[in-house]
Amino acid sequence: MKVFVADKLPQESIDELGTLVENVENKPSITASEMDSGLGEAQVLVVRSTIVSKECINNSPNLALIVRAGAGVNTIDLEAASNAGIYVANCPGKNSIAVAELTMGLIISLDRRLADNVIDFRDGKWNKATYGKADGLFGKTIGIVGLGGIGREVVKRAKAFGMPVIAWSRSLTPARAEEMDIAHAESVEQVASECDILSVHLALNPETEQIISGEILSKLRDGALFINTARAGVVDEDALFEEVRSGRIRAGLDLLSDEPEVKQGPVESRFQELEGAYVSHHIGASTRQAQLAVASDAVDIIRGYINEGK
Ligand code: MLT
Predict the structure, then answer these.
(1) Is the CB of 93 under 6 A from ligand 1?
(2) Does residue 262 carry a pLDDT above 90?
(3) pTM for this predicted structure
């Protein structure tokens, strides 16, 4: 059996894979055209951010299992995989803490304008007067849309900061909200209307696409913060751009709809011109702890596949 690893996994996990199968091809810097031309005799493919296109799938006749070392599977052509009878597995929940930590990081950074502090310092400027006007987070209401693993980790951290929480998720009942000691909202609109900071934690699917619409964004109070560490597609990005450009709200974004597919290289985005937008480089899951947990889950999936043929 051959396992093809088309992204950077921790060396420990590559070594462990080597104990399971004879042939592990580790090619973290594979290009899109190399992927598209097919993966030879590989039966198993492990990817993180690398795109798995229809061409790649159709040109890899032996492929039987694709393991996404992460939660979202939007980088894989699922229809092509299903037509080719390829099983696609993911590793949900393993990077929830890392994403929740980045969420809090973006909130604090925006409130204190940390990125601007650093840029000015590197420019030789000391600006205590400009940056001494943060709001502070204690007592600010955070609105959470989506209460899966990541949303729940954000709730814990927000509470530790003394922030009241109002949340909506499809399955959140008033009783469950009471148990969690958070306020239950009937709708996303209610969350947006009643919070100071809105953070979205939903997987992207047809039901959640642009769930944070222009209308929802317009419900945010002046000066509110919007945080997206989920997927770019859950928000109406044009409307978000206009709201941030007008200066009415500020945004902390770990994702953009036009983020580069490459892991390293130049970037061009309209959000670069906005002072009120802090954009990180899709690094929510990028802690060593999270990557070890995700990779070890990926290895377990492959072990299960080898042992049980599934
Ligand atoms: C995820 O879907 O879990 C993240 O996008 C993973 C990643 O960035 O590797």
Answers:
(1) no
(2) no
(3) 0.93
